[in-house]
Amino acid sequence: MLLNKLVKIDELHVGGHAYPVRYFESQTASGATRYSSELLLGPADRIILDGNSVTALESRVARVVPATIDSRRLAGRPAGSSRAGGDSQKKDV
């Protein structure tokens, strides 16, 4: 059974918005220590990343999250919006 222990809370600022980030530590079945981060974009929209250390995760979050937010903006889907409900992203040309 994996238990996540909260080890750090932070914020990432992108495009004038502050996004909360939580970092967790867990033990694998083989006893190895792993870390994960959870960045909350909206009520039902999270980005979860994992890594070998909190420092590595902080670096990865700083690189990946701004690109994810920008790609959603370019696709016409703002960060924090949910795709639930079957709404289609197809557009007639």
Key words describing this protein structure:
41% strand; 4-stranded antiparallel sheet; disordered C terminus; 93 residues; alpha+beta; single chain
Summed up, what is this model?
By secondary structure, this protein is of the alpha+beta class. Helix content is 23%, strand content 41%.
Question: Describe it for me?
Answer:
- By secondary structure, the protein is an alpha+beta fold.
- The chain has one helix at 54-74, and strands spanning 5-14, 17-27, 33-42, 45-51.
- A 4-stranded antiparallel beta sheet has the order 1-2-3-4, with helices on one face.
- A hairpin with a 5-residue loop joins strand 2 (17-27) and strand 3.
- The protein is elongated, with a radius of gyration of 15 Å.
- Mean pLDDT is 83; it is low at 84-93.
